[in-house]
Amino acid sequence: MSEFRLGDVIDDHCIKCRRITNHSIVSIVTAKPAKVRCRTCYHDHDFRNGEAPPSKKDLKKAELFKEVLAAAVPAVTEAVPEAEPEASEKPKKAKARGKKA
Ligand SMILES: [Zn+2]
After folding, report:
1. 59 CA to middle of ligand 1, Å?
2. How many whole angstroms from 36 Cα to the centroid of ligand 1?
3. Which secondary structure element, helix H or strand E, spans residue 23, and what is its range?
4. 52 alpha carbon – ligand 1 mean position (Å)
5. How many CA atoms lie within 13 A of 15 on its CB side?
6. What pTM was computed for the model?
7. Average pLDDT value for residue range 35-52
8. How many CB atoms lie within 10 A of CB 72?
9. CB-proximal residues (5 Å) to ion ligand 1
10. Which of 19, 23, 25, 33 could make a disulfide contact with 12, Cβ separation 3.0–4.6 Å?
């Protein structure tokens, strides 16, 4: 029912102002605001539904969490004991030859 139109003023979180401010809609995708412009600092950004983006603190936390997870789970990328197929079998060549002949 509530259709968005270009230039409409909506609330959103401005990363520059670091708070919810008035924004004008500058682009709409599938009937939803895609880009908005802060009416306070005129900063354009993607519409984020009024949600604050993850702060640097949060990002750091996430990274730490990842590290902890990586430490808890045995390194899968390093420990590959029985996955070393030295290409000992070459059935492809034979197959290709057989098909052609
Ligand atoms: Zn702003």
Report:
1. 22
2. 10
3. strand 19-29
4. 12
5. 11
6. 0.54
7. 92
8. 7
9. 14, 16-17, 38, 40-41, 43
10. 23
